[in-house]
Amino acid sequence: MNKWALIVIDMVYDFADPNGAVFYPENLNIIPKVNKAIDICRENNGLIIFMQHYHREGKFDTALLRGRKNCIHGTGGDEMIKDLHINYDKDFIIRKRRYSAFYGTDLDLVLREHGIKNVIFVGTKTNCCIRASVHDSYYLEYNTFVIRDCVATNDININEVHLQDIDKYFGNVITLDDLNEVIKGEEKNE
User: Fold this and answer.
1) What tens digit of pLDDT does each residue of 90-143 get?
2) What domains sit in the chain, N to C, each tagged with a CATH number?
3) CA atoms of 153 and 175, how far apart (whole Å)
């Protein structure tokens, strides 16, 4: 059993489709690279988890009090984009209502049930959901990786600043080209 998982953060319609409520062009640009990371992980029998951000219309949700409404359940904005390489029979899809993939979800339980010690993050937004998830991953004592060319936000400078902080304090920022080496290295350390 592999001790690592790929966690795909919030590649949903409202964030990653040009017609989405809060679309950022960089999110569209990372889709082929995210799919390549998914394919590499699948070829190496890794656990693949998709985090699906959503909010409930008409119900109190503090996250909806800020900014533009997005990812409202039932509107299609919270649905995973169709271009993703999802295997609905094997991959996990976990819904979340906050920035962190861990907060208020069963992500930690799923990872521990599968003996996961190393997590690799891809997706969007680097300065919000990726960073919050990386922080919690670090606090929960997972070995944490972020694939630099598979994450994005609305500004490349903001993206870079957050990746530098993550690499310095909370985990390891790698490139997609490094992924096979990281996976093989983690398998040797089991």
Assistant:
1) 999 999 999 999 999 999 999 999 999 999 999 999 999 999 999 999 999 999
2) 4-188 (3.40.50.850)
3) 17
DSSP H helices, 44-178, are 107-113, 131-139, 156-165
Provide the pLDDT confidence category of residue 56 given band limits of 50, 70 and 90.
confident
Measured distance CA(119)–CA(163) in Å, rounded: 16
Instruction: Please confirm whether the linkage preceding 125 is cis (ω < 30° from 0).
Output: yes
CA 160, CA 167: separation in Å to the nearest integer?
Answer: 10
- 65 CB-near residues (< 8 Å, 6+ apart): none
Question: Please, are residues 148 and 175 in contact by the beta-carbon 8 Å criterion?
Answer: yes
Query: Looking at this protein, which amino acid is placed at residue 131?
Result: R
The whole-angstrom separation of Cα 120 and Cα 105 is 18
State the pTM of this model.
0.94
